[in-house]
Write a structure and sequence with these properties.
Belongs to the plant acyltransferase family. InterPro entries: CAT-like_dom_sf, Plant_acyltransferase. GO terms for molecular function: acyltransferase activity. Keywords: Acyltransferase, Transferase. The chain is an alpha+beta fold. The chain has a domain of 87 residues: Chloramphenicol Acetyltransferase (2-Layer Sandwich). It has one helix and six strands. The strands form two sheets. Strands 5-1-6 form a three-stranded mixed β-sheet. Strands 2-4-3 form a three-stranded antiparallel β-sheet, with no helix packed on it. A hairpin with a 6-residue loop joins strand 3 and strand 4.
Length: 125
C-alpha cells in the first residue's frame, strides 16, 4: 500500500503523579462560539537507524505522563457550564490521547500537514 499510515496504538496517557482535582473557568474570550474547535497536533519524528522504536515510544509516553503533572489542565476535559454562559475545564486527570502510527511517507511529505488522510489510515483492531 503506497503512502499509507498504520495506527499501531491509541491510548490515553494519564499524569504520572496526582494532580489537583478542580474545575477551572475559562475566560469570556475562550468561551466564544466562533472559537470552539478542536486543535489537533501531528508530531513527526525521524527514526534513527539502530534505535529500538518501542523504547523511543515508551520514552515519549513517559515524558507526556510527566509533563501532564504541572500542566494538568491539558489532561482535563472542556465542557459548557450548566447555565451555558461559558466553558470550563474539568481537571480530574482524565489524560491525553496518544496515537502511535507508522507510515511509508517520508519526513519531507510532512512539510505541510495533510488535509485528510481518509481511507489511507489503518486503525488497530
Amino acid at each position: 500500500m503506497a503512502n499509507s499510515v498504520h495506527v499501531k496504538e491509541v491510548i490515553v496517557i494519564k499524569p504520572s503523579e496526582p494532580t489537583p482535582s478542580r474545575v477551572l473557568s475559562l475566560s469570556a474570550l475562550d468561551s466564544q462560539l466562533f472559537l470552539r474547535f478542536t486543535v489537533e497536533y501531528l508530531f513527526v519524528f525521524k527514526a534513527r537507524p539502530g534505535l529500538d522504536q518501542s523504547v523511543i515510544t515508551a520514552r515519549v509516553k513517559a515524558a507526556l505522563a510527566k509533563i501532564l503533572v504541572p500542566y494538568y489542565p491539558l489532561a482535563g476535559r472542556v465542557r459548557a457550564k450548566l447555565d451555558g454562559s461559558s466553558l470550563e475545564v474539568v481537571c480530574r486527570a482524565q489524560g491525553a490521547v496518544f496515537i502511535e502510527a507508522v507510515s511509508d511517507h517520508t519526513i519531507n511529505d510532512f512539510d505541510k500537514a495533510p488535509r485528510l488522510l481518509g481511507s489511507e489510515v489503518e486503525m488497530p483492531r
